[in-house]
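fold-stage: in
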Amino acid sequence: MWTEAADLRITNIFSPERCQNVQGLGLFLSVRFIPGNDALHALTSGNESMAFRVVLINNTHDYALLDYESIRVASEKDLYKIQLGKFLGPNGWDSMEVSNGQSFSTYDRDNDKWSDNCAVTYRGAWWYNRCHSANLNGLNLNGAHDSFADGMDWSLRGYTTPLQYYSYPSALMMIRPAKLLRR
């Protein structure tokens, strides 16, 4: 069984207020509340190694399962830095590669390595580097769109692919004990 870290199925709205609540991202998605980074830290900082799974679901209900051998999210003091283990998904699909080892950036806390604020530019709080090839906290633009990389985006290898003009209508982020991950 997986524990949902985020179920991103309903349109989310980017605003400064959503980033000010570390107990939960402050994102209300109709009936769901996304656990905050404090909860992710608590779930991933114990002695037991936790695996991370991303499920991307497109408009035709096809899906991709993307697994990481392990995940750790640091405390607020360490800016919720994410550490991911080995990627176990299909070649070219490791869009978290550029986020690995990065601190969490929000509208009001710019912790990325870009001169501007990636969370403002790409309209979602995330583990940005200079900025991203994955941003599942972006806007739910429900498929193809004209704006660059501000949707719920998971691009293939690198920063500029057609998938940065595609917003997955549905995405799940889940964790569970790594010992239960099938390899």
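fold-stage: in (second)
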Amino acid sequence: MSQTTEPVLVYHQQGHNPQDADATRLVSRMALRCAGIPTQICAGLTQGSRQGMWWSSIFRCESGSMLGAFMDYGIAFPSYIDAWREAAAAEAAGFTHAWFFDSQLIYSDVYATMALAAEHTSRIKLGTLVSIPSNRLSAVTASAISTINYLAPGRVILGLGTGYTGRNTMGLPAVTVKDFREHTQQVRGLLQGEEVLIREGDRERWIRLLHPDRGDFINIEDHIPIYLAANGPRALAATGELADGWVTGALTPNLEAGFEAIRVASASAGRPTDKPYTVGLTSGCVLRDGESLTSPRVIERVGPNALPGLHAMWESHYGPGANLGITDPDAAAAFHRYIVEYGDARGSQPDRRYLDVHTGHMVFLKPGEEQFISESSIGATLTGTPPQIIERLEEMEAAGIDNVAIACTNAAGARDLIADFGSEVIAKRSTT
């Protein structure tokens, strides 16, 4: 979105409480309205940081643009190599973030996908959602993300997690929180230009990025925030101690408990205790005239993203264990019966059921999986009419979600989401 020379009102606030900044921003916006100045939120531009002590918001007056939107809007891609086309379209439609899933047996390589997106965009922020410590050495992760930062300076976020499909598709459990913490510390140190200690068996070696100042390879001058995906108490503690942001479910029922756990850990580590910048992952679809939650297009767009919880339940009861903290013996048993029948019909080996479970994961529904899709499972996503979605976004915002990351399943679904969410939700929220 191009800059303009329209009149601009800028305010700055110093403090430790992001909620105070939000309140002042709201008062300023209301004051503009009361003064009869037409305003419109311009999504897709930097709003300032909750990480430090200063916040700034810019309101551009007259029609066309105003900076100061409360919530950031993200689209989460299954990392198909040509996602740069949809990332560019999302940027034009007002999305502020493009997130990319990292699961090496399901998608294209996440960093190759992000590199192309970086080359074809100019404002939208690009982040992994999320990379897994065991799947790359810390040095490889640091080199990869700082290379993307060279292509898109200051627009890059590294999301890290303990591993769901990045591990379960190999028949492996999530990495331990100890290894998760160590990997995060090593990557953080490398991105800060420090020497860090790595271990391989009984060997210990010090390493660093050798040529950060050459200008040919990487960029660690522009800060790369690290966000951690966390559900359990130890991972939440690591988030408070080490991270710049928190990744969770957009519809997590008790965000306050997570915020408190992170705050306590931050205080113990001597870090600021502000509420972390919070990314809420969900999926969704804007209903068109005549559609319901169970219309064919809606199920095609959202159905694959409504099943990861069920896949995780299967992993918890029949696999090596999942990291989502979701368990339901009856649901897991029903899905197990289905997956045995599905696999047996294809001649799958019984010791490799996990490969069948995750075939199509967050991409398409396997034949027969539609039986597990219901109105309630679709309703648990960000699917509805534009007014319904806007109402739910306001609830998420009030609960503390700063960035809603809406997953799509393929390029066609991404184009639908970008067009419908951009025009019916982002644009309408911008003018209310």
